[in-house]
Amino acid sequence: MGGSGGSGYVPRSSSAGVDRLVQQAGGRIDESSYNVQANDLLREALKEINQRDPQKTWAYINALKETINEGIEGTVDLAFGGSVRKYTYVNGLSDVDLLVQVNNTSLAQSSPQEALRHFEAQIKAALSNVAGVEVSSGNLAVTVSYPDGTQLQLLPAIRTASGVRIISTRNPEQWSNVVRPSAFARKLTEVNQANSGKVVPIIKLFKGLINDRKIKLSGYHTESLAIKAFEDYQGSTSHKEMLLHMCRASINFVKSPIADRTGQSLHVDDYLGAANSQQRRQASESLSRLTQQIETADAQRSIARWQEWLGDE
Question: For residue 118, what are the CA distances in angstroms to 12, 131, 265, 290, 293?
């Protein structure tokens, strides 16, 4: 039975060394190193997002303002809404909502649709010869899409003492009740501060991941999901763990409508239909696949997967 050699026994310290070699050969690293490297990659991705030069966007905005002002008496003012106001803007992934305030102009007595048609006609005429620019109009806004991925949405608005009136979602021929976009921004700020200022960065990272997978969630909806995910959060504040938490939480939250805090509409996500609609189930399934991919990368401690997702190869 016995033999003098080949028993296969390896001292404990040597066994640990062999395990490390096996892990390295398979592209795996120890958990601590993996967490550090993954979070470093996420921080670098955020740095790139935050350093993107906004000058081109401002040039677009100023040009549109001049275009809209042509042919009317008075001057419109532009106010940011959406992701810019809430600091969650990601160039190429976020719409820029611009409230075009028509107070003190010849459009002030116009119907909402008359103001909208004026904006659309002026912008289309001005940009008709600019290659790659698309101008479209819905019931609420004019959307201008540029070849570099920038999208500007212009919503006619009337400023009042208590808030803003935009086009009513229920009846586009009328102005809405007063809406308060600042109420939502305050809530997001509150949740962000309660989580060491990490929620806004996580929203930006989440937008990038779902955009790459063609998961169609609006910016406002994404931000609302983040509020629900983190308003009572007690976990780690590392970028990786918070991003994974948001992905996991969103799988279920996306299945049900979320109330609109601003008063603009009943829900922030009416575009997905009623609770458990087909669109909501599809979004939930897509988020579940994304979450599984991250969990698999975690289990395998695969930095290569994060590099692939974040474009850092």
Answer: 78, 22, 24, 43, 47
Task: List beta partners, residue 79.
Answer: 99
Q: What is the pLDDT of residues 124-171, one digit of tens each?
A: 998 988 899 999 988 888 999 999 888 888 888 888 877 788 888 788
Rounded distance, CA 84 to CA 78, Å? 13
Report the DSSP pairing between strands 95-101 and 151-159. parallel
DSSP of 187-220, one letter per residue? HHHHHHHHTTT-HHHHHHHHHHHHHHTT----HH
Tokens of 106: 């010849």
> CA nearest 93: which of 258, 240, 205, 253?
205
Give the integer Cα–Cα distance in Å for 290 and 305.
12
* Among 203, 167, 172, CA closest to 185: 203
- Please report, as a single letter, which amino acid is at residue 312: D
The label of the residue with tokens 């994304």 reads 290
The model's pTM is 0.73
Q: Enumerate domains of the chain plus CATH numbers.
A: 32-51+183-310 (1.10.1410), 55-179 (3.30.460.90)
**Rg for the chain, CA atoms, rounded:** 25
User: Cβ distance 202 to 226 under 8 Å?
Assistant: yes
